[in-house]
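Hi, here's the filled form for the chain we discussed.

Project: internal
Contact: R.S.
Residues: 117
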Amino acid sequence: MQKVNLEQKLSLFSSHWDPQVVADYNGNDIMVVKFQGEFPFHKHDDSDDFFLVLEGEVTLDREDGDSIVMGAGELCVVPKGVVHRPRAEAEAKVLLIEPQGLPNTGDATTAAAKPRI
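And the returned structure, exactly as it came back:
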């Protein structure tokens, strides 16, 4: 067992859209990330996409024009196959949970490796 301080982990990097793995859970990566601006529209064919806002405000847009706005302490699960994009006007801090090895863009050719901190 090991305690993870999310605030401390978030202080270790300043980049945006760069998920950092902080723990493993039943074959999933638990990650922290900072959002600012817009991420491209994308989808995950084989997995839902989990977002928990720790600080700030995040908007999740669906390709059909529907949007959900979330503040600190709120979460949303985007069902697999749904085209979506997260965005944040000001910096937001978010916790993500994804199966290990899942590309954050849903496309292995465009996804960056997820570092572990």
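Let me know if anything looks off before we file it.
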